[in-house]
Write a structure and sequence with these properties.
Length: 185
């Protein structure tokens, strides 16, 4: 079944069709969230948020798009909002922690020692470079390079004209390419 047919069933309350859409797109949504956050656990949580929101809004959202019709661009739109909300929440949390008085102790800080997987470390390094880009340029580059969306689909996800997508993508590619060339020297 196509995404369009499954979505029609989901809108009518079909949980089995929703499960099929989840199986079809959860991996791509997870990869997108992982690239945006750099953390496996957070990405897994955000996938849950994305699909929970999708189910919650199933009767009110009409998804339109080019052929072949896919729910994935809309899921990326929801994931973009979820990752932005997560990042804002994290920023507020860090600010709140900064206001709490610290008490230095000689206790063993084993809990403070972070355990990282190689893939997560590499992802964080790339994210650090991407964070230097303006937010709009970064989003377009990520969706193009990592989410395999066409420029028209990116425009649809972000709600901007295709021409804006093209200019942001070109600018981001020049910037990132320059950063990695300088680092290699």
């Amino acid at each position: 079944m196509t995404d369009e047919e499954l979505w029609g069933q989901v809108r009518a309350g079909g949980s089995e069709a929703f499960g099929q859409l989840f199986e079809r797109h959860a991996r791509a949504v997870f990869a997108y969230c992982l690239r945006r956050t750099g953390t496996w656990a957070v990405a897994e949580d955000l996938v849950s948020v994305v699909f929970m929101e999708t189910w919650r809004k199933r009767t009110s959202v009409v998804v339109e798009g080019s052929q072949p019709w896919s729910l994935l661009p809309w899921l990326y739109t929801v994931a973009l909002g979820a990752t932005r909300n997560h990042q804002r929440s994290r920023t507020r949390y860090r600010a709140a922690l900064g206001r709490v008085p610290r008490h230095d102790t000689d206790d063993d800080h084993a809990d403070d020692v972070a355990w990282r997987v190689d893939a997560e470390t590499r992802t964080r390094a790339v994210i650090a470079e991407l964070e230097k880009l303006p937010a709009g340029d970064r989003e377009v580059l990520e969706m193009s390079a990592w989410s395999d969306l066409s420029q028209a689909q990116i425009a649809q996800v972000l709600g901007i004209p295709v021409g804006t997508v093209k200019s942001r993508l070109a600018r981001a590619q020049r910037t990132v390419r320059g950063a990695f060339v300088e680092e290699a020297l």
